[in-house]
Task: inverse folding
């Protein structure tokens, strides 16, 4: 029984990572469930985090400003704007149709290959370089 509760608790914690995309009607229910489990099993460190999360994101900021559940178009727009900016940096002048096609195909294959490598565990996240500012 305890194992089932812990597994369910882990699933709810993972939901915190995607609160941006969850129906706002369920956010407080999920938050309260996680809080109750933390109190039952004395997960004090996580309770501290939950309190911070509650004060900062559930009360200080209106959920409608950070939740994208009903506004998936905004996410799509940001992704396309980001890619457009990337293309502008890639081409310092207007490319020919053939040059554009070549670069787009190359980008498509690179992103697909990186995706496959991430799934297979071959591609790791790049570590940030520490810059010494002394």
Result:
């Amino acid at each position: 029984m305890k194992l089932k509760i812990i597994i369910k608790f882990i699933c709810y914690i993972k939901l915190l990572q995607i609160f941006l995309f969850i129906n706002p009607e369920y956010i407080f229910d999920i938050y309260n469930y996680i809080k109750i489990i933390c109190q039952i099993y004395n997960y004090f460190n996580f309770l501290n985090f939950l309190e911070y999360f509650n004060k900062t994101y559930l009360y200080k900021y209106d959920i409608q400003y950070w939740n994208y559940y009903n506004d998936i178009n905004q996410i799509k727009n940001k992704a396309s704007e980001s890619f457009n900016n990337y293309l502008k940096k890639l081409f310092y002048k207007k490319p020919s149709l053939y040059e554009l096609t070549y670069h787009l195909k190359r980008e498509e294959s690179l992103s697909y290959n990186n995706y496959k490598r991430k799934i297979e565990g071959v591609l790791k996240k790049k570590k940030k370089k520490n810059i010494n500012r002394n």
Summary: The longest helix spans residues 97-120. The radius of gyration is 21 Å.
